[in-house]
Amino acid sequence: MAAQLTAALPSYSPATTKAAAGSSPSSHFLAYPSRPRNVRNGVRAQVSTTEPTAEPAPAAPAKPVKISKKQDEGVVTNKYRPKEPYVGRCLLNTRLTGDNAPGETWHMVFSTEGEVPYREGQSIGVIADGEDKNGKPHKLRLYSIASSAIGDFGDSKTVSLCVKRLVYTNDAGEVVKGVCSNFLCDLKPGSEVKITGPVGKEMLMPKDPNATIIMLATGTGIAPFRSFLWKMFFEEHEDYKVSNFSILDGSTTTQVQNSNPIPTMLALYLSH
Ligand SMILES: Cc1cc2nc3c(=O)[nH]c(=O)nc-3n(C[C@H](O)[C@H](O)[C@H](O)COP(=O)(O)OP(=O)(O)OC[C@H]3O[C@@H](n4cnc5c(N)ncnc54)[C@H](O)[C@@H]3O)c2cc1C
């Protein structure tokens, strides 16, 4: 396959939203209600009359019909909330970064038994075990899902994350460890993990199989794109046959061990 590699970043700009609404910029503009007249100092004057009007009242501006360009039909959000999270289990937790890397990043897989249905581009929340300094349960932290919708094992029963361990030195010279990232990076297979969500519809893959996707990421920002690439290259989807793929820069992959599938995946496709 003369594969070229194309990547894409959904756009969140108002312009795209307008285009997604299926209306031209001008028609979109016209659809906005005009600024009300008779408004002074924030108070709108009321005018009433029983006189017949010479001309019929202008029709209310038509609301533009919003047609999503993303694959968002049936996308589930917030099935699990912090008060009643889904309790999954860590199945696998593996360090991706090598010894010389400046940080520590882990790839982990949790069981969901299919109870946390998600799409590529969504995130989940994780509530770390333990309590905060006020004796309350920790607040959830969001993590981009790094697996495709059917999960790394292909059975739609798992969800994977790519997590960087947060460790920094504060102004007092103390080493501070981030609550949730350290909880996750230290998780042992078999341990329970509280999951909320899934959340987010902003980063869903586009419906159009010919859409140009540009993926820009630093660090663990790669996570959602791993799910995209996995779906595009490791799975058979009629609507996601990639025709053109190119890489501009793979700078951080040199510090990633072979357990990370992305370099392998990219190398495989570049060799075709
Ligand atoms: C939508 C979304 C998706 C995300 N996806 C991912 C992902 O895929 N992978 C991932 O690893 N993370 C991801 N994050 C970040 C993640 O949610 C957490 O914020 C991160 O893991 C840190 O959480 P923590 O509990 O370890 O740190 P916390 O205990 O919450 O500590 C974080 C706080 O420490 C302080 N701090 C941090 N660094 C320094 C510093 N150098 N100097 C001084 N103070 C500092 C800041 O006040 C910061 O708010 C995502 C966030 C969002 C919003």
Automatic annotation (TrEMBL):
Keywords: FAD, Flavoprotein, NADP, Oxidoreductase, Photosynthesis. The keyword Endoplasmic reticulum does not apply. InterPro entries: FAD-bd_FR_type, Flavoprot_Pyr_Nucl_cyt_Rdtase, FNR, FNR_nucleotide-bd, OxRdtase_FAD/NAD-bd, Riboflavin_synthase-like_b-brl. Residues 1-70 are annotated as: Disordered. Signal peptide: none annotated. It is an enzyme of class 1 (oxidoreductase). PROSITE patterns: FAD_FR. GO terms for biological process: photosynthesis. One of its GO terms (molecular function) is ferredoxin-NADP+ reductase activity. Its cofactor is FAD. Pathway: Energy metabolism; photosynthesis. NADP(+) binds at S144, K164, T220. Its EC number is 1.18.1.2. Residues 83-205 form the FAD-binding FR-type domain. Residues 49-64 have a biased composition (Low complexity). It catalyses: 2 reduced [2Fe-2S]-[ferredoxin] + NADP(+) + H(+) = 2 oxidized [2Fe-2S]-[ferredoxin] + NADPH. Belongs to the ferredoxin--NADP reductase type 1 family. PANTHER family: PTHR43314. This is ferredoxin--NADP(+) reductase. The lineage of its organism: Eukaryota, Viridiplantae, Streptophyta, Embryophyta, Tracheophyta.
